[in-house]
């Protein structure tokens, strides 16, 4: 059960290179990508297509005094200039957000963050559209901005959302989980209590492809075709129907190849709506693709949590309780993309992998004059923040107790026999076996040897740090009785057709942004039906061709859609049994399944393969009562619970004491995502997330100055790791299947992004222990590390 | 995607032709070499030249040649259109001026280095630009041509301030000349937030040893910390002394006092001063080691 | 103004505005959409193409500057149905996920291997350090390039041609934005050839 990964053989597959079902398999989507034949939104050219560009506000907070578009309209290549006033007339100036708030599509009254949408130009080509932006004259009356969440609730803070009736402050919500009184009692009785302010700064998913859309509205039949960079095409279609008043059956949303999403492409941005309005106004298709600064300054950021953490323990290192109060900066509009009933996402899994007596968290959301968002960047709905908090607090406790951080974790893990485990804030962890995973990571790292090396180096004045993180994720939202987005239950559909010759097509509602769905979902069908993955096409990304479902984010594709695909394949398999029985002139209960065929119990030579059954189904075989003439099925999967992947990460860093520069020397990641469908793809998902972790821990941050200027508005300042900043990842795995998931899989898309930042920061802090440091906030840039070494670590915001 | 405002374009065939084009199109014309400084500024519409004079065909400005100058001094001449990649890969440059190789390794990234030129870097005169410091440290002479002929400027004369040089709009920087000195070593070190980033701070040094092992000449330069020209006080402290760690520490202290950094996203003032100190010590150590190696190899050759 | 250049071995002459960036010339004029762009500041390397065999960031080169030069884009990597070993390597070693940075990464890899047929890991990492990948964490890209170095003639064996044929089915079935395919101009197809 516990193995070190080295392209492991798949017991279910006859041939590792061409498995029928699970195993390492080259991706079916790669041949088009390596030939430059990927097909992204900006590659789309429709006849007569025009180009849009957005004029954005140069300041963070200002009253819009006047806007003069006459000169822009006079530009020979300009077809339309749309302002907030124009949208007001259409009832489209404001759009609902995914968090029950509204967001301005174009400014009508007041600018609320730098980079906010002010006007939209539609022109013949992208060059002319950009030129015309310079011809729009806007007068602003600049207002003092609210840039620090800590002062957003002060009595004298300017009210940002004066558009909302009766609004007199910048408060959005308070949300709690756990039992406060019980937690207070546990803390009162504890030997040791340590507290720490921990800041998870604002970062940005920054996929390599920015957001964009091509809208094509046909005025004759009232039909809208919208090509979009979206991770959730079906949810977008429904929301567009609700916002724009176009009947849902007249809307087709197409999400072609997506150049990375990471949660950046879940929400509906003003640009998408403007492309649609532009097409309606001009009667022609309109393309809008944002530039990099627009992406970084206006689309969904991530995190921005200021957390006060407290942890309570006995002298001997039994962790008793954890509590935290959080100030959540949601920016100018509350537009977080998450299950609607959870305004702080799944942050309340901050109890982590430990068996606690009590826990309590309280999250307060506030408005500031920054871009809206908050739930993005592979965060599993705020599990990133939760894991970071608990894994930092455990390390701070270890330092206080003088215990080895690995030992402290091992001592406090939820035990295997406690699963399913009900934690103190309302979660039921489905399965887990933490100690072997932790032990494997320590063995791969050579943990004891690393500690010896560190001791020697410290004696020589060298700075080496070893950081551990043990995370538990909660992914696969989710059960419809608890989880919806604006009333849409978080379920996913799947349709499977087996054609007469035994080739199949499976249609799914989730949307790959690079995760390899065309391969993984074909492998699930292959595993269930015993036909080769290359004989199965996966169709996704087109609402006219796929069943309804909520899309890909929060690591939900395998847990939810994967479940749907397994179940629809089983439905087909079950139907195949009845048809096979008719073909073999026997009773269905006398048949037995082996991968790829039904055969007569006790006489394996007599049977029918799926291909034979498919031909039979579509042919002339006399079908039993209630069985129709095809081999198709469809399902919508409502998962009974979320899944809880986990993992043990160990990071080794070296710090140059003269400059504060941190080098990640090694990173060992042992993940447990339950049943493994394609180990190659899983490894890729982990590698990518670990790189996110290095980015966030060492360099990525969206900062603002006091005037409200965004300081991370280009790739010159928003730094993302290159191949030089990351090590050659060392990965391993254990397998603890989910007991409730149809194939036992748990999801892996975000584990490493969630789990790696604390391992890296813990390593940096460990390296700085000789300076008496027990905490420093991200990003650990050379300057910030040096400041910490001088005894004055400071929060990044 | 961001797009430059409209302009006209002409490709020069020779230096004289480029000069004529600049004359003809007036002060709103700009020289275009690698384009990796100018084009991003134009995309942001912070620069809006009316004409771009492309000099990428001026192969006469793409050279690395060693020879005697007019006074007979051993000189390395580098054409202004020499690409960063060419400089980085030149064994000759590395043997004579390892500080250039050190700096080139950390300028932008390999692909930008395929296009960017030494002349373009110097003319951009960004305060965080590495080659400006390198040229200051090496006492390079800039050869500038205009319709009236050629003029030779020291780096002190060449640099007028941030983003400003002595090259007039109707002139072209043609080459940089570096005096080759025996028993000399040089080095450059930069702290950056990530590979390819501009310097948080950087330092360069050149050290020439006398036959008795004392320091005969030394120059120290700093990047991105508000230091104009070389750090005279720090270099003066080294002259005539035997190179020791204590001496380097003193030079580092003087460098940190001399500079005048500003706080920004890359770090606070005291950190940058600290880096001026720390990096000065490091480059002095490495330059001295290299000077020793150079002295040894010279002695071997002479012996 | 008129520009003439060789793109993937084919001579191209087009009339353009002087300010047209090479990346837009390739994508919008020639309709070779395998070359992408990801930033405006020449930091991300998504737009890398080869100019006279050397990788350049085509968002920071004017099409006018490429006049008289030879450009290679990802569409020019394969020879007919025979993939470049770099393309094969990226498939073998999972060197791509979303595919957006992939064309630029592969072209840099091609130029590296032409210059240095047996690079070590550090040389590979340095060579691609001007390019950002948000998905892979780079290790599999390094492995892909090493695979290509170890299989200089890999693409000549039969499997490649097979997978080439197989891919067109997958690609089409996934890709539902058909209108854009049909809108692809003649000149683009000529350039592919």
Brief characterization of the structure:
The complex is a heterotrimer of chains A (797), B (303) and C (193). By secondary structure, chain B is α+β, with helices and mostly antiparallel strands.
What would you say this structure looks like, in words?
- The complex is a heterotrimer of chains A (797), B (303) and C (193).
- By secondary structure, chain A is α+β, with helices and mostly antiparallel strands.
- Chain A contains 18 helices and 34 strands.
- Chain B has helices at residues 15-25, 38-43, 84-89, 91-96, 98-105, 110-115, 118-124, 130-138, 155-158, 232-236, 245-258, 269-302, and strands at residues 8-11, 29-32, 51-54, 64-68, 74-79, 141-146, 149-154, 159-161, 164-165, 172-179, 184-192, 199-209, 215-223.
- Chain B has a five-stranded antiparallel β-sheet with strand order 4-5-10-6-7. Chain B has a three-stranded parallel β-sheet with strand order 1-3-2, covered by helices on one side.
- The N and C termini of chain B lie far apart (62 Å).
- The longest helix of chain B is centred in the last third of the chain and has 34 residues, at 269-302.
- Residues 157-193 of chain C have low confidence and may be disordered.
- Chain C folds into two domains: 2-76, Ubiquitin-like (UB roll), CATH 3.10.20; 85-157, DNA polymerase, domain 1, CATH 1.10.150.120.
- Helix content of chain C is 41%, strand content 12%.
- The two termini of chain C are 26 Å apart.
- The interface between A and C is large, with 75 and 76 residues.
Keywords:
heterotrimer, B: 303 residues, alpha+beta, Uridine Diphospho-n-acetylenolpyruvylglucosamine Reductase, domain 2, Uridine Diphospho-n-acetylenolpyruvylglucosamine Reductase, domain 3, Enolase-like, domain 1, 3 domains, five-stranded antiparallel sheet, three-stranded parallel sheet, 12 helices, 13 strands, 38% helix, globular, C: 193 residues, Ubiquitin-like (UB roll), DNA polymerase, domain 1, five-stranded mixed sheet, 5 strands, 12% strand, disordered C terminus, molybdenum (chain A), Ald_Oxase/Xan_DH_a/b (chain A), AldOxase/xan_DH_MoCoBD1 (chain A)
Structural class of chain A: alpha+beta
Largest interface: A-C, 75 and 76 residues
Give the SSE order of chain C as H and E letters.
EEHEEEHHHHHHH
Fraction of residues in H or I helices of chain C: 40-55%
The CATH topology of the largest domain in chain A comes to Aldehyde Oxidoreductase, domain 4
Q: Which band does the percent of strand residues of chain A land in?
A: 25-35%
Quick one: CATH class of the largest domain in chain A?
A: Alpha Beta
Assembly classification: heterotrimer
- The proportion of residues in beta strands of chain C is 5-15%
Question: How many separate helices of chain A?
Answer: 18
What class would the helix/strand composition of chain C place it in? Answer: alpha+beta
Protein name (chain B): Xanthine dehydrogenase family protein subunit M
InterPro entries (chain B): CO_DH_flav_C, CO_DH_flav_C_dom_sf, Diverse_Substr_Oxidored, FAD-bd_PCMH, FAD-bd_PCMH-like_sf, FAD-bd_PCMH_sub1, FAD-bd_PCMH_sub2, Mopterin_DH_FAD-bd
Keywords (chain B): FAD, Flavoprotein, Oxidoreductase
GO molecular function, one term (chain B): oxidoreductase activity
